[in-house]
DNA sequence: GCCGAAATTCACCATGCGGTGAATAATGCG
DNA sequence: CGCATTATTCACCGCATGGTGAATTTCGGC
């Protein structure tokens, strides 16, 4: 039956929701507009009508999770000696909250396409990790920051956090995948804390 | 020009080599038979002739890297107190050696498709990590092994190793992505070593 | 030197993709 | 009420995909 439906339309929101899941499950290239539309129970043409194209849909999906400053507030205000615990705990909350499916879509696409990986890396460093490192690293409090050292801490901490996410949410390695937050924080946070604020041995400069 | 070429044919090997790279760069779904054939400089029909189908090519690509026992020999014979260093060092060698491109294809596909993820997880645990953990974990030497504790160590160590690989080879987080092996081992190995042989605090059982 | 097997290319096919343009029905503002 | 706007479906298009069948050439054992 052609033509507009009676009542207020929720199609746009339902498309975004369906796309969020499809992108998360199959990646941005693997997801198809036809599947997304079918999941939302509407005609594929609605994607063009509401978003112009598949890329427009992808942008709409990314809009919600991209409020990192508000989301990472707990990390930005944690005392330096507890930043590891708070970071890991916040990460778990975010990935298991309603926005997690959007994050999964982002990471999946980053692995799929090097172009996306560039964007994610930039976002991760400039918005998520570096601000934290710059604030809590011991070098920062001793006057001279030494950006190289800060970048080392950032990439090392990120490697553990990303590994946690990969192991827990993608590869589903047990028992890490099913362990409760307390257990994960208790075991992984010390590593992150060490990378962020512990002594860093630099064998190249000595 | 139709018909067989003079001389001995290297097409099959060239197809596998081209496929290895294409799969690594785009994932098993993202790679196309036409691109692979073009990269190898042959007709797409050769894939059917030599491997039957795209899936057959994928299997051929996986054959080489699947000799984990020989590859991980250094890890299997490392003294327990150095297993972290040896594991990380061997991992770097493998991922940057000729087989690395095959590993990248595997991990990329694991993230792309949950079905592949199951296979990779099984392989990782049963063939790569668990044997090492079972050998070096302090519990193993005190009589009763406690499989749950061993699995905890395995998943935690795997999370750091996978995170290292993701950060270095996929997201290319600097300086971790360009650092030499010594530096990476010096900074990451202690974490892995701790997960494998250090004290594990289990807050749930006390 | 013959002849079956292997190697290679070519011309297609059905399918699914993202996207386009038009037709139709309900909404909501004046 | 009247009418522009919006929402929705439909019938297509061009393209790329993986795959098929046949034709053609060389290789290698006898």
TrEMBL record, chains A, B:
The UniProt record lists the keyword DNA-binding: yes
Keywords tagged on the record: DNA-binding
PANTHER family reported for this sequence: HTH-TYPE TRANSCRIPTIONAL REGULATOR RUTR (PTHR30055), TRANSCRIPTIONAL REGULATORY PROTEIN (PTHR30055:SF235)
Cross-referenced Pfam families: TetR_C_16, TetR_N
Name this protein carries in UniProt: TetR family transcriptional regulator
Source superkingdom: Bacteria
DNA-binding region per Swiss-Prot/TrEMBL record: 32-51
Domain HTH tetR-type: 9-69
PROSITE patterns, sorted: HTH_TETR_2
Gene source species: Agromyces tropicus
